[in-house]
């Protein structure tokens, strides 16, 4: 079985609120645990009315407290927004509360716009120090040296697993150099997928954390009992991406019967390009799509986004995906 995990956007729906979104995330994680998903990740986004996971470590604690075995983590924390010591303390605390279950994925994008970056009191140029910040964070999570003057408490000695996230070859090269697992954001930025994976595998250097490369690849999957129903459910995500191109970051919208009435031809092309790594359909359609995607990427693990408005329909989608994945094997990719 191909290992599968979930990236939850913690969408705030029209007619609902942030508490509801966070409780739905927790409920989804509990169900996913029973369906043998490996991880449940949330991402840091700021100044977005439709996403409730800005305080990512707090959201992780909420979800982890409602589950017992599934790994819960950040996919990811945008490290340029934070001092590495603070992140080491936050995730060290999470590791103390939920031992053996916390992941820490790291990105170098701000996760927001430039105005909000200034509101975060961060220098936009801080992304340039991302490699050094990763090493600093890794050192804070390692066992403290006897003469170490600054110690993350909690955090030191926790060795919370680090992941490098990316949507370009920069992240793949860095993950390979540091010997860390790599997650590629092809669920919204598919352009460099094959090249990034190729470079990561070819340049990987074994480390204490990771003996061999491990590539997790993001993909959108909207599953339902029929292709037609899945296509209808997928319009929620398609409208979100259309709105993003319009400069509108609103709440998640209920699906519509005909997406062609919502977007222009240009908007359709833009959104469809960003959502190119998507599978939409019935169980059989999902199975065929998964097999093609694994043949294309050789992914060691899939990080699945099923961005559906109705919570019950979203649960059903993830259950279908889990059922299908049980019969789909990884396809090793030669370097």
TrEMBL record:
Keywords: Oxidoreductase. One of its GO terms (cellular component) is cytosol. Residues 4-300 form the Luciferase-like domain. This is Luciferase-like monooxygenase. PANTHER family: LUCIFERASE-LIKE MONOOXYGENASE. The keyword Hydrolase does not apply. GO terms for molecular function: oxidoreductase activity, acting on paired donors, with incorporation or reduction of molecular oxygen. InterPro entries: Bact_Lucif_Oxidored, CmoO-like, Luciferase-like_dom, Luciferase-like_sf. To bacterial alkanal monooxygenase alpha and beta chains.
